[in-house]
Design goal:
The complex is a heterodimer. Chain A is an alpha+beta fold. In chain A, 31% of the residues lie in helices and 23% in strands. In chain A, a hairpin with a 2-residue loop joins strand 1 and strand 2. Chain B has one domain. Helix content of chain B is 73%, strand content 0%. In chain B, helix 1 runs antiparallel to helix 4, helix 2 packs across helix 8 and helix 4 runs antiparallel to helix 5. Classes of the chains: A alpha+beta, B mainly alpha. Chains A and B meet through helix 3, helix 10, strand 10, strand 12 and strand 13 of A and helix 1, helix 4 and helix 5 of B.
Amino acid sequence: MDVLTAQGLPYDEMQARPGEVRGHYLALQRRLDTLDAGDLAERQRTLERFFLLQGITFTVYGAESSTERIIPTDLLPRIIPAEEWATVEDGLTQRLRALNMFLADIYGPQKILADGIVPRELVLCAPSYRREMQNLYVPHQSYANVCGSDLIRQPDGAFAVLEDNLRVPSGVSYMLANRDASKRTFPGTFRSAGVRTVERYPDLLLATLKSMAADWRSDPQVVVLTPGVYNSAYYEHAYLARLMGVPLVEGRDLVVHDNMVYMRTTTGLRRIDVIYRRVDDDFIDPLTFRRDSSLGVAGLFNAYRAGTVVICNAPGTGVADDKAVYTYVPEIIKYYLGEDAILPNIETYLCREPAQLQHVLANLDKLVVKAVGASGGYGMLIGPHASASERAEFAAALKADPENYIAQPTIQLSTAPCLIDGQIDHRHVDLRPFILSGDKIVVTPGALTRVALRKGSLVVNSSQGGGSKDTWVLSSPHRDQDVQP
Amino acid sequence: MMLARVADSLYWIGRYVERAEHMCRLSDVMLNATLDQGEAASQAVRIALAAVGEDPAESQRTPYEAAFALAVDREDTNSITSSLARARENARQVRDHITTETWERLNLIYLRVTDPRAAARFADGSSVFLQDIIADLHQFKGAADATMSHGEGWSFLQLGVYLERAQLIGRLLESGFGESHGRPVTEHVAMTGLLRMSCALEPYLRRYTADLQPRLIREFLMFDEDFPRSLRFATTQIESHLVGISRYAEHTGNAGPQRMAGRLKARLQYADIETLQLEGANALINMVLEECSAIHAAIYETFVAYSLEMRLPA
């Protein structure tokens, strides 16, 4: 165990111990040594201007108004060596394969519930469980076509999965934009480092989406469904549509007639085969889900049931990334694949279990408590950083509705060098790789590294003051890489 | 084939950028005219105010206040800033249909006019401020021309530009020569002002020399075949883009706007210019404005808000 962790300090991406730079960061360190604060600031300004010009912005929802902002982007790349990535890639592939099998099972024969591996009521009572999906044919049993898992490093440096995102994960456009930007910022270092390419993501996504309709159409019409220009991730929706070369549609552009989905074009109605929807389950069809939704398309779900259109990700995938179901993922992997999980989970307490609830209540000042259904950094308590009254408030909520909460130890997250006010300082980061699953599973060799820009903060969500940086996955000379999968 | 909503947005981008550019020119010429004294200058101011829909007799504002509001007032829906904000908002909604180069130009103009320092920069030097926007808009149009496919989407963008242009020039001619706006323009300074507002001074001089005559100005702005801001040129473009769009349509239901545009183009192309008097010219301008509104409505009916019953598969 090295000095940093021995002192209770988090794992640092760049330094094994103060002053000792890890091998895969040496080239970047040497480049940084030749740049003074002015050069760095200049590069940072160029980078921000690039983002602003492109309109790479997201919307922050405030109490009264919402504003359009550039996502804070850090200049310095985070670097992951090839052998570490190999583990991540294998682990993520294994995990998504098992989760898709789990979804096919619970929306099918429900063997895993019958065998008592996962408690029946935990799944069937989860708000994200969609009864409407029961016994519905999903091509390749790929329910979650796009998955963005959140990984963090444990103090010993090993990656673990903090969260799976199987609903409508976002952030991939920042991965691509950050890559564009860092190629401009450190071209020499980038070239000699042997960074694996992420630029194939849009065409791999398109191939994944098309494979979902391969049953009945050789060249299916794919569209991206967005809630519209006011959605916080609108930039990403437009970006992906543009790079895939497919229409970006809103609910009001679509019509369902005789269980077929059409879009309104200038020359009449055109049939649609695959919908990559970036609209939550609740809002896709007012006839099936929320009646007050104006974002969706009336009759869409019936067309889906009739098998004339594919919705990606499938409705109801949220049940597999539910924070309570999460605790069972290692067992789920074991059950379907007969393998041990390559990437471990973070130790999690289920407050629904009385004994674990007692433990959580007694250790609120050490734990992170999360509402099961919430996401985006909302509805959570970080015990060590919370005030006594905030903790008391959460304790009351926990006792009132224990089933709605889980708790995890406060994990330090690893740190990485960032440019903060012109100086290089270390901030906490996580890692969100993107995994595609259609007729096969593909892990993009890259990721979005999210940064908690406030010193000491552990919250990386962009809605809560987080930023991002490019992630360089290095290629290994021993592996054949970047061939068409 | 493109989404009806996308076609609509592209069309409006065209209209709003054209409107912003025209309003920049009006403001600039008007503010310039206020620097001079006398009847000629006040004629120029009157034309500009009338062209933006303000009654010069009723207006409580000085020409400077009017130009300032026209430039940077976001509350004013006709202002240059509002037009640019709307153009950019539409562009954001069809970000996947315009090239990055095109988008960046428009986004840049938007960021400049909505900058908190924009009002101060206008006060500091209105002419530089307005000329910069015009130059930026030319860059936007140039980038669009050079990088976008000249297909259906392009045609909708151009339709917006030329319909807006025909209406703006028509209204400018109305306020310059129409009966409802007091005495027609006669003063030399006012006539050059009118030509400047339509970006026509230099092309006019090349065509007719420095012999400025109201009749020739009307003739140039209405019937010139090659000048890109004449009514004839604009209506020719409208017709040709509608023909272009109909290439993509499989059904014949869109004959409406195309037929109207063809008829309008022909009336300007074959007008009896030699014998046309002031009254006849005004009637013709009025007809052009009405036909443009009708074409606008027909485009919307045909390509965007058509009734679904007609288009559902049997």
